Recover the amino acids of this structure.
């Protein structure tokens, strides 16, 4: 693929005016919202929409119990709290993930310990996790990144050996399956996000799933001011918070869930087509999807360009792709094991309690943060012409390494 890069004044390959919008009305969301607004029951304590969604989503994910809450971050906080994690305890989390995975531990006074990830799929590395367990470790959070599922067999074995709780951060993995079983209740507790970018969304929102009735009651109590199912309105048996989802959100999520399977089939077809189109491009590595991921959540499409990453040109490549019309391209995460915000709080907790500061060496994460390119889920909702154009844009951009290097030099003076 030749031709001047659009970033440098050439003509873009793609027309972004046809790029899919998200969030989007994909079913009966409008009628569902009107149903709530005219009912007079806007709070989940008096209505039935959230309760129905909890049942329906839990059933969809093959989990016995579901408790909705305000967002995915709080879902993680509630999961850790219900699992018995507390002040000074250590929680092993991947360094290549959204900041909320680690921040949730800090919000209850626990210390996040950063595990590296595997280079070929960006998922938490069980071998590194095993080396990080100490007498202070209480839980491991497995992140099902981009919709691909972490190695739950290996992580469960580590958790069982050391008596740890295993939490699934499935914020990006609604609909994903591991060895034929939907994620969320494979570990002790699974958490999901319904933030605006997610494949299933109400703008904000989250839910926790579990197969353990005692954990389900603890989760309910945490987000319902310490109440218990079937208890009195002013019967507060534990210390909890007011973190309930609204009926309006519940109704929207029910409509989204009804449309979800068809959209996931569309994303899956698009991912297969895109992989086939990208497969022969020099310098590009597609993320490996292990056979244990029997259904992919298809929230992100993840690629690597190691040569450009090593030269510090990945961001220039992303800018060039966007200029060509690949609107869903972006660079992704920064390494959490280098986050001053997280490390400062974690060190303060450890120092106050007289505990050692955990080791923070995650070299694979450092590499991935420099050479990974994401395509967001809107790309997987685009038509075939757009998908083929995305592959053409990658071929065009990656064939002009010298032009990218000259552009970076010029930009840096």
């Amino acid at each position: 693929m030749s031709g001047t890069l659009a970033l440098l004044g050439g003509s873009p390959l793609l027309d972004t005016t046809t790029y899919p919008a998200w969030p989007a009305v994909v079913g009966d969301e409008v009628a569902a919202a009107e149903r709530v607004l005219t009912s007079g029951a806007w709070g989940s304590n008096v209505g039935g929409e959230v309760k129905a969604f909890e049942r329906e989503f839990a059933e969809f994910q093959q989990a016995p119990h579901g408790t909705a809450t305000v967002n995915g971050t709080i879902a993680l906080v509630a999961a850790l709290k219900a699992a018995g994690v507390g002040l000074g305890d250590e929680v092993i989390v991947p360094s290549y993930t959204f900041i909320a995975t680690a921040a949730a531990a800090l919000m209850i006074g626990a210390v996040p310990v950063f595990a590296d990830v595997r280079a070929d799929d960006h998922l938490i590395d069980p071998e590194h996790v095993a080396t990080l367990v100490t007498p202070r470790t209480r839980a491991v959070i497995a992140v099902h990144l981009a919709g691909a599922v972490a190695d739950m067999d290996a992580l469960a074995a580590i958790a069982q050996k050391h008596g740890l709780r295993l939490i699934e951060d499935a914020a990006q993995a609604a609909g994903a399956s591991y060895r034929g079983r939907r994620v969320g209740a494979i570990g002790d507790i699974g958490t999901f996000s319904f933030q605006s970018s997610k494949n299933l969304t109400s703008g904000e929102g989250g839910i926790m799933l579990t197969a353990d009735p005692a954990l389900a009651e603890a989760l309910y109590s945490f987000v319902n001011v310490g109440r218990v199912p079937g208890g009195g309105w002013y019967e507060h048996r534990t210390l909890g918070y007011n973190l309930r989802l609204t009926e309006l959100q519940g109704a929207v999520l029910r409509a989204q869930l009804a449309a979800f399977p068809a959209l996931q089939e569309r994303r899956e077809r698009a991912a297969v087509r895109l992989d086939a189109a990208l497969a022969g491009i020099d310098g590009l590595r597609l993320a490996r999807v292990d056979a244990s991921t029997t259904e992919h959540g298809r929230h992100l499409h993840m690629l690597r360009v190691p040569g450009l990453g090593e030269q510090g040109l990945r961001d220039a490549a992303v800018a060039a792709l966007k200029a060509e019309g690949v609107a869903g391209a972006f660079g992704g995460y920064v390494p959490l094991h280098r986050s001053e915000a997280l490390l400062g709080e974690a060190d303060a907790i450890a120092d106050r309690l007289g505990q050692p500061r955990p080791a923070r060496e995650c070299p694979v994460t450092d590499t991935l943060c420099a050479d990974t390119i994401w395509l967001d889920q809107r790309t997987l909702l685009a038509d075939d012409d757009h998908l083929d154009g995305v592959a053409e844009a990658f071929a065009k951009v990656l064939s002009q390494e010298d032009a990218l290097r000259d552009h970076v030099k010029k930009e840096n003076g």
Q: What stands out?
A: The first strand starts at residue 65 and ends at 69. The longest helix spans residues 247-278. The chain has 14 helices and 14 strands.
